[in-house]
Amino acid sequence: MIKDKKLSYYNYFLMLSLALIAGYFITSLFFLNRTWESGRQAEQYGVTVEKTNAIIQYTSQLESAAYSYVITHSAGSKAIYQHKKEALLEYVKRLGDHCSAHHFADDETEVLNNLIYQRISVLDYMMTQNSMSKEIQMEQMSVGNETTKKILNTLKSIRNANNEMRESNQRDAGIANRNAMLLLTVFGGVMMLIVFISFFKMRKEILRSERFLKEINQINLELSSMNENLENFAYVASHDLNEPLRKIRTFGEMIELELNSDQINQKTVVSHIHRMQSAAERMQELLEDLLSYSRISRQFDISEKIDLQDVVETVLGDLEIAIKESNANIQIESLPNSILADAIQMRQLFQNLISNAIKFKKPEVDPVITIKSELVKAETLPFDELAIDHSQMYWKITVADNGIGFDEKYTDKIFAVFQRLHGRSTYEGTGIGLSICKKICENHKGGITAESSEGNGATFIVFLPIN
Length: 467
Known about the structure:
Blueprint: H1 2-72, H2 75-101, H3 106-128, H4 134-240, H5 242-260, H6 266-298, E1 305-306, H7 308-318, H8 320-326, E2 329-332, E3 339-340, H9 343-359, E4 368-377, E5 393-400, H10 411-414, H11 433-443, E6 447-452, E7 458-465
Parallel strand pairs: 2-4
Antiparallel strand pairs: 1-3, 4-5, 5-7, 6-7
Helix pairs in contact: 1-2, 1-3, 1-4, 2-3, 3-4, 5-6, 6-11, 7-9, 9-11
């Protein structure tokens, strides 16, 4: 159900993004179109001014050529007049077509066309009259000047009409551009917001994926440890547990043979029974240690903070007899007074480490055990799976002794279930103590390692996260 809601949200988010991009694109096109339209209208006004100026110029030149011909009757003046008349009519036609194409000043161009033809008609009449009194010439020129004024006023009206249309279009374009800019700003702001939301959501998903990856790595590590423990358990089941059973069966058979003989040796029977009892005790010890290891894997509570100083003091009280018998010197320099951990498992951890330090002492040498702690960064840890999160801090707790030590090539072996470096005849125990220490550290998202050399004591290093 939650997954479906996420998909629905992402679909909505995608559709909104596409709609905003489409709106931004359309608005941009509209803005560019209005800008192009404004440029085209400015160009149109320039063409209108150019054509009206040409008409004024040709009208003036036409009048000059006509008046020159009336005075001089020069063939050259007449030729110039004909040329200017054709050019003038052509420009009047072009202006009319231009105004018609852009839908302005249609009435004015019609009036202009009539006035031009009227002006040409007067000039043509003057040029065809060979003998015309000065009074008539002056009268015709006066009429022509009035027509020319009307032509100029009409051209001015055409320009004004074009200018008004240009200004109106520019106002409309300005409003449209402002609206387009506003829309572009809104679209841009919303898109920026979407980008920021996408960034933070993506960052959240990446962090969550990294957290899941860490959890998966931790689970893989635990699975690897469990597989290793299963292999060790299989070894114990096939060898260590089978050995006392084989002894019990063998000595049972020997007792049976002894009882079936004609002369029963009571001492021999009692010896065989004692050895059977010893094997049974060994088997019982192995089974109890297996149950202890199983409980360590399942039962722990790290919801409350504890004082490790108090925990170690309790352990020293439990080991009081062993400490006095070995004349051990326990030195506690510093320990965390507030850490999230299971008090029972911490007691087991330090009891195993301290009792091992006492057990594996040098002959005729009083054991000296030093316990201290310090804060370190995750990146300094010797465990790759713990060193990933560089922001995490860990308590580094060391338990160092002056005992017999061991070769560091056996560091990994000593933390495996039921792995021993010494025979049972030399040192008692099943070899599960350090594997329990390792499991306790893993339960607390930490780790344990050791540094040592033969004859120079051992230092066990525990790493526990401060959180």
